[in-house]
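the two lines:
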Amino acid sequence: MGIRAAVAQTAGRATTRLLKLAGRPASQLPGRVALALDPSLLSELAKRVRLGSIVVCGTNGKTTTTNVLARAVQRAGHSVWCNWRGANMMAGATSAMLFGKEADWAVIEADELSCVHLLPALEPRWLVLLNLFRDQLDRAGEIDRVQDSLVEALSLSPETGLLVCGDDPLSVGVARRAAEAGTKVVAFGIDEAMPEPPDRVPEARFCQVCGAELGYEWRAYAQLGAFACPECDFARPALAWRARAIDVTREGVAFDVLGPSGGDAPGTAEGAAGPWRIEATFGGTYMVYNLLGAFAASQLAGVPAEAFQRALDGYDPKNGRLQHYLLNGREVVLNLAKNPTGFNQNISLMLTDERPKAAFFVINDDYNDGRDISWIWDVDFERLAGVAAEGKLAVVAGGHRRNDVQVRMKYAGIHAPLASTVAGAIEALGEAGYGANGAPLPLYALCNYSSLWIAKAELDRDGEAL
Amino acid sequence: MSRSLAICHLFPELLNLYGDGGNILTLAKRLEWRGIEARIREVRVGDVPSFSDADIVFIGGGSDREQRIVCEKLLAQKAELKAYTEDGGALLAVCGGYQLLGHSYVMGEETLEGLSLVDLYTDRGSPRLIGNIAIESDVSPQPIVGYENHGGRTHLGPGVTPLGRVAFGHGNDGESGSEGCLEKSIVGTYIHGPLLPKNPGVADWVIARALERRYGSADLEPLDDEEELAANEVMYHRLMSHQEKD
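prediction for all of em together
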């Protein structure tokens, strides 16, 4: 490492220590300081990763996937650099790699549009691409642009393989173009027919190659499923890593994984094949994909399957994703919902809970959230009108844009009072917050990005984590 | 007499970029709440649109590629659409749909032919004009608030009235202070996605034009718009009191 990089690293480390002394989060600023002194520091730090790097990206689920994967690599006895808290641009990745002389692995979550910088710097063994949905159009632009940027990122790091969700036409669109340019592509996906999901296909109904409307043998959620173009050869690719015997319940998900075998599976922990049973106490259908992607990546990193399951068993990242609390005797479920697909999946998950319940929908429009919240009109809130009319669901609108949420609810046929905190939401519910026997109803607090941390801080302070 | 309006939603599968469906939902609910039937026709990709029995036509925004497909399909029906708007048929076009109303618009390096329903044209400028917007308009008793995100710069012909004057944000070209267009019963605007929910005045203006054309008079029963107007007021206040951060 040259003098410039060493100075930058020292400055980044000092910044981290100062922030920690001040009790401030150190997931971004240290990297920003260090990169200002040496813009190429990340590629210097990458040389100190002994075995390899894996980068995880995708619109939804990347923080959970990254955390599970990094824990599994740790469980296998390796040291890991990871941006655990989801600071997923250059500064966040750099902050995660400032300490320690070296690490066995780097497992790095990447914002889709940051891959074009992160990949050439890290030259990871694999890029895991989970899914692409419409999100933050004001900042990220249209999905076409995100796809172009990912193809470019892979072209800038030719040794990086792409581990892609083969059930997502938009991710497969990226994979197809990358493969044409020489990238090695390995696909994962679900290998059995899924029951018809209640949501709509919000995007990507059309062939990535010829524009014809895609046909589906079955669909898992959003645009993910066994798709094929009726007009050309664009279709779900052959899957190397497959999930079967899938069980999705309120309590979590379980499924078998089958891997490639023999000569198709060099470098994997067990020479692949399987099947392995994976069980987690959280998530819905979308979590099958996250865990399948994480598992396949862990196998490709040589992690034994039982280490992966042990990482899942103790998984409790306390990062606001599906966190359960007790607040004054009331169960509160906190989760992130930051775009139409995420919200629709949360609604599906909430509706599997048949108890009468309350919901607090919280939408902020800070820079990190995206300033444009037009997307709330693409969420299928209409699915809640039935249970609300039966008196089994009461809704409160929150966040800086609570008035907009309230109007959205009105047009879905639900009257939602306003509140600015979780405690305020419970107060706004009044009698509707209690069941016939007087017991407090469970409350689902679904928050977009910046509002999640505010609600979490309130619940950490006033509630009890379950 | 029970009344009924046909709403023609053009290519929702292609033009659904920013919550455009909220506009159709708003029209449908505001008709339903007044006891007026709303018949919603979604014109799908393979369909040939017909405007002969339409009362309200809606065109949303899409990505460049999708917008081009839509424009080609609509150019084939240009004469019929022109006859519909000449007859006073209500047409609401937002974002990319607004650009299609003019003589031409620009996509990448290419200038493409538009529908020429309104004397305007669109070229491109830099940077993109992105952010919250508020305008004052004759069609709505309240200011119209929403969000804009467009690289296009739209220039109105000499006889064309803008939908409103920009109070906050950019509008047609970021310079002239005009936003959108208003001609006969055509409303075009860069205020994209869910324009109508928070701007019930605009929704009712469109509904009233359609009722007048179909039944001779609007007779629009007032609704309780407390929640809609509160959302409108909160955003307008935030923009005009310079609390809007960038």
